[in-house]
Amino acid sequence: MLPPCLNNLTSLSYLDISWNRFSGSLSSSPIASLTSLEYIDLSYNLFEGLFSFSLFANHSKLKVIQFLSDNNKLDIETENHSWDPLFQLKVLVLSNCNLNKLTGNFPKFLLDQHELEVVDISHSKLNGSFPIWLLENKTGLQQLNLRSNSFTGEFHLPSDHYMNLRWLDLSDNHFDGKLQGNIGKRIPKIEYLNISQNQFEGNLPSSIGDMSNLQALDLSFNNFSGEVPMGLVANCASLRVLSLSNNNFQGEIFSKHFNLLLLSLKLQNNNFTGALSVVPLKVYGGLNISNNHMTGTIPQWIVNRSTSSPKFFVDLSSNSFEGQIPCGLASSDTINLSHNLLSGLLPSCLNLQDVRHLLLEGNKLTGSLPKAILNSSSLMTLDIRDNRFTGSIPDEIVGLSNLQLLSLSGNHFSGVISKQLCRLKRIGIMDLSNNSFSGSIPYCFNNISFGKLATSGFVYTQGVFFSSPMFSFPYKSLLNRDFLIEGSSLDFYVQVEIEFVTKNRFNLYKNSILDIMSGLDLSFNNLIGEIPPELDNYLQFMH
What we know:
By secondary structure, the protein is mainly beta. It has a domain at 274-464 and 491-543: Leucine-rich repeat, LRR (right-handed beta-alpha superhelix). The chain has a 19-stranded parallel β-sheet, with no helix packed on it. The protein starts with 13 loop residues before the first strand and ends with a helix.
């Protein structure tokens, strides 16, 4: 509970009790008597029950109200006909609250708030149509966050004047229809635009190329179609994060006009065509073009980053890339080239010293495993199943001291199974099936931990965030204090999956489930002899 002695602080203008463990109800708190408040932040406590904005009825000086909840037990009611606000807010943050629980209506009192600069009403279970009236005659509004509500219908901006919006997040709602043709001219100062996870459709308007200040754009998980406007990839020079994934875009996005320097580019699950080799890409953090119809070879300059740049993640899987694997990829953290038409030998210059995940499943790669790639203490995943590799497993595989997932299935490996595999102390899943291994199962297999020594917090379960000051927008209060409303950075997740036989069925396992999986598959080989008794006893405890 808030201490009752706060009632005595009638001249208090700044109250910030965020990130504590205050609990109980606010309905009987001393807030109503603190009529000199200009700034109040009650975020991240354990308050519950009902809080009515009518407690602010006599607060004529209020400029900033922040309620960011993390327990979802606080009900906030702003609709009360018995009061009219005397204040003019600059900042209103009501996030992860049960806002206007009975109606789900957008706070109507904002209609008369003409000095607003920041409105964040995300994760608050609101419904109805987009409150276009919020943007009318509010030329100072810079940040609007309506993320994760249940808004429906079309999204339109006022057509009779320009907006000063710098930050707009409408993601994870139920908006539909097409974007208005002049959207880029209505919000020319926009820096962050996230309308992902809706049902928007149709072509992107060409005016999106007029957003010259745009730094982050997320249109993923919609029903957009057609080609990407040339202006977006040619004129938006400030753009650093671009996500167009999970739509129906088509055409060649990588033309000679592509002129972006990006931290993250996510184009997966579309119908893009063409080659990568048209123009050198300038992507310094993450590149995902998986599940498209891209063709041609993978150019040497696919990784173009300085040593001070973030770790690079590249996913070109499920396309029709052909030719050999370029050595330049070795500076990546994660390499996923699965399900393409790549052929030839693995280049000996592919030094995997910094690589944690190498996924090459379902190509036409041949030859033996180069010893040079088996000297990586960083490698956690080596998946080269369903290729045409030959030869035996080199003893140098012991150099992969942190390996947790090894899949050599569906190749033409032969010879005896190397005893050096027994020294991979962190291995959790080992699949050597569908090859031509011969001889007996090494007795030392009973010494393998099969997941018991796996690294804590394995990357399968973690998202890799590209955070940047551009995703946090400071607002300077009247008391010269800074606070931040965090933008949702566009995550670049490592997607690792493995097909493994369990209970006589091929099942696909991916991400967090791999943390608790352990398994050994030696089926469909030419092995002879007995199963080592120690291993037989151990297998009954494996998942």
